[in-house]
Every structure is written in C-alpha cells, then in structure tokens.
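Fill in residues.
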C-alpha cells in the first residue's frame, strides 16, 4: 500500500514538474514581442523564436504586437478662430518601436495618444477659420502627426500618419455652404453661357467680315477684269486705226480723196445727233476746204456734161 502511494506521489510530482516546465516555454510568433519581468522588474524582451523562462522568478509581463495599428477616435468638438464649433474625428496610424518603453513609459498609451491628438487638433484648428480648416487638411494632418510623434517618442511609439476623417460643421453652416455652392455653380453656369454666346458672336462677326472681304475682293477682281477688257479693246481699236492710217499713208492718197473723207467726217459731226461741232481753228483752212469742195463739185458737173454730150 505504501509503495502504491509513493508511486502516485512520484508520478504527480513528475506531472506537475512537466506542467511547470512547459508553462515556462515560450514561442514568440512573427511581428510580436514579449516583455519578461524577473522578480517584478524588467528583465528582457523576447523576439521571434523559442525561449525558456526561469521557473517561478520569470514571467511574461506583456505581449506586444509590432504591426502597424490604427486608432479611430470618435468625433470631438473643436472651435475655430471664427467661433464656429465643428466636430472632428481622427484616425492615427502607429507602430510600437520599443516594447520596453511602451510597457513602462505610460500607463495607458492608447488613451494618451487619443488625448494628445484631440488637444493638438484643438490648438491647430483654433488658429484657423472654418474655410481654412476645410481646405487645409493636409497641413493640419502633417502638423498633428509631427507633434504627436514627438510627444510619443518616450513611450516607444512611432506615429506614421494622422488623418482628419470627417470635419462636420453645424447644420446651419452646412445649409449656408450648400447655398453658397449652389450660387457658385449658377454663377459659373452663367459665365460659361455668356462666354459661349460671346464666342458665337465673335465667330459670326468674323464670318460676316470674311464674307464681306471675299465679296469685295471678288468685285475688285471683276472690275479689274472689266477694265482690262476695255483697255484691251481700246488698244486693239487704236492699233486697228493706226494700221488703217499706215495703210492709207502707204497708198499715197490724192488730195481729192482726203477732201471727200473730210466731207464724210463733217457729215458725221453735223448729222444732228452731235451736241458739239468741231471747226478748224484757222479760217484759212476753212477757205481752202471750201475751195477744194468747189473744185470737186465743178469737176463732177463737167464730167456729167461731157458724159451727156458724148451720149447725144
């Protein structure tokens, strides 16, 4: 009986020892770190891999994820420089760079980041008007990240980004902004329409101007062609007359022939349709002309009598 009790006791002690040994075996997964305390004080930080702790005196104080983490804080009231109360909700992206500082640097680091971000945003937005706040998100994000990152260095935290997810102004301000946006859209529409009408009018005016210029140029070309045709006709007529005169001169016409041509010219001048009568300026010429006419008439009469006598 005593042997059985001894065996049971030995087995129990062995099982308890194995349980204690396995309870002090730690396998740290990827992207995690374990903070180990020895007798209540910081001893070391376990990285990825297999580790054995000293029984009884060592313990894992905290398991920490080294992945980038996200904190989404609820909307908080913030007053702008022009006394408009807006609600801003923030997202913070951070990683833990030093597990020891993260464990012992601050009691509640998440709460500390939240309070720090709210305070920083209130300080920055308090120096901006509402319109500046709505249009300067990138600037506000950068300044908040820089301030929070510097403040969390003693906590072993690296702040990568800070984003203002929503900026919610009061309802009456939203309605005023919507009216302003609507008015701005209508103004742009009117400007675009007026600009289109202006361009259309300019194009029409340019088209009319080009059309007028083309018509004027066509008329000018037509007049030039007509004038050129008349000039060519006059030149051809003058050349024909000059050629006729040269032919007459080459033929050596008699004085009687020239006198007859003069009569024909006077007949055309005095046919009743002319409004002006051209007379030689020298009276002597007129007398000579009349004498020549009498001689021609007398000769014609003599020729006629001789013709009659010969017939008789």
């Amino acid at each position: 009986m005593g042997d059985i009790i001894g065996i049971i006791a030995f087995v129990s002690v062995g099982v308890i020892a194995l349980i204690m040994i396995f309870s002090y075996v730690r396998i740290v997964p990827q992207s995690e770190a374990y903070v180990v305390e020895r007798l209540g004080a910081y001893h070391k930080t376990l990285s990825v891999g297999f580790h054995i702790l000293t029984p009884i005196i060592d313990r894992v104080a905290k398991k920490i994820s080294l992945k980038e983490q996200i904190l989404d804080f609820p909307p908080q009231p913030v007053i702008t420089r022009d006394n408009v109360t807006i609600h801003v909700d923030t997202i913070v992206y951070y990683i833990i760079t030093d597990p020891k500082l993260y464990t012992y640097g601050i009691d509640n680091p998440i709460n500390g980041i939240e309070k720090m971000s709210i305070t920083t945003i209130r300080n920055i937005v308090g120096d901006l008007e509402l319109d500046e706040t709505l249009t300067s998100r990138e600037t506000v994000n950068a300044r908040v990240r820089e301030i929070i990152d510097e403040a969390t260095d003693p906590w072993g935290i690296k702040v990568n980004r800070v984003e203002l997810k929503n900026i919610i102004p009061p309802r009456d301000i939203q309605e005023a902004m919507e009216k302003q946006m609507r008015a701005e859209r209508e103004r742009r529409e009117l400007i675009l329409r007026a600009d289109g009408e202006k361009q259309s009018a300019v194009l029409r005016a340019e088209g009319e101007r080009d059309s007028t210029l083309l018509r004027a140029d066509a008329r000018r070309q037509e007049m030039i062609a007509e004038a050129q045709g008349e000039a060519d006709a006059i030149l051809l007529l003058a050349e024909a007359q000059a050629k006729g005169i040269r032919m007459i001169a080459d033929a050596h016409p008699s004085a009687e022939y020239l006198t007859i041509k003069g009569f024909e010219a006077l007949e055309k001048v005095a046919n009743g349709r002319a409004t002006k009568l051209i007379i030689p300026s020298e009276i002597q010429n007129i007398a000579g002309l009349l004498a020549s006419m009498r001689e021609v008439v007398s000769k014609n009469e003599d020729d006629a009598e001789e013709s009659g006598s010969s017939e008789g």
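The chain has eight helices and nine strands.
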